[in-house]
């Protein structure tokens, strides 16, 4: 399962705090880089999102919890839509109803 994990830094969070925490968690082996499909920052800093691939919501929580004092999380389960496949399916569905 793929999870969209939007983050926003808390008001008093500094870049140095985030850098330090990421490195601490990396060294502790809790960041699970094999589960992180993508890590994106929004222009301007202070927010962004992770795409995390895991079927275990407990594993997801274990990954995100160490950062909760620095950022707030907004987490949603997501799934991928392949554009051309969807176009083909929409055509078929519309033809079936015509």
Automatic annotation (TrEMBL):
InterPro entries assigned: DUF3303
Highest taxon, organism lineage: Bacteria
Protein name (database record): DUF3303 domain-containing protein
Organism: Saccharopolyspora phatthalungensis
Upper classification of the organism: Bacteria, Bacillati, Actinomycetota, Actinomycetes, Pseudonocardiales
């Amino acid at each position: 399962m793929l999870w969209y994990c939007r983050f926003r830094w808390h008001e008093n969070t500094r870049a140095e705090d985030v850098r330090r925490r990421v490195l601490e968690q990396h060294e502790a082996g809790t960041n699970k880089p094999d589960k992180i499909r993508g890590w994106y920052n929004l222009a301007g800093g202070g927010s962004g999102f992770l795409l995390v691939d895991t079927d275990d919501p407990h594993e997801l929580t274990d990954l995100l919890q160490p950062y909760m004092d620095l950022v707030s999380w907004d987490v949603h389960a997501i799934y991928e839509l392949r554009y051309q496949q969807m176009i083909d399916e929409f055509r078929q569905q519309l033809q079936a109803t015509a």
